[in-house]
Amino acid sequence: MPVRINKEKQENLFKTYTITWTPTIVILDAEGEEHYRFTGFLPPREFSAAIILEGAKAELDLQNYDLAIKCFNEVIEKYRGTPAVPEAVFYLHVAKYLSTHDPKNLRVGFDRLTKEFPGAEWTIKAAPYRLIGN
Amino acid sequence: MITWKDSIDQGVNKAKEEKKLVLVDFFNPQ
Lengths: 134, 30
Prior knowledge:
heterodimer; A: 134 residues; mainly alpha; B: alpha+beta; 20% strand
């Protein structure tokens, strides 16, 4: 559900949500709880990738694993080359691990990140998973 | 075509009905 909050008309909500810079996108669940946010301008393709990624992470928080996996794959397949992809690969394999309890999914994620995004932040964050056996 | 609401409460209520998430764009028109 898309909502736009204008600083000039609803400044109280900027205080409530501690928004210090614009544009800021905040993802809420159906109970109004915040899950993720990001700030700054992005071109349309990068913006689409970012909001699908953040939505997928929120679905992961809500344990909607199948939907989260579908959305992470959408980012990876349709938005190749955008900055959202390495994080989507990381969380795709986290979601697979959480839905199956099979730690090999984390190792597969690390191997994929190492191959496709060597040196990237999300590859570094996945480094401990190299200790998981194949 | 996206129809933007201007109320977080409206967005949350609609999200409850449709079991979806709410995307809030905080912007400054200046």
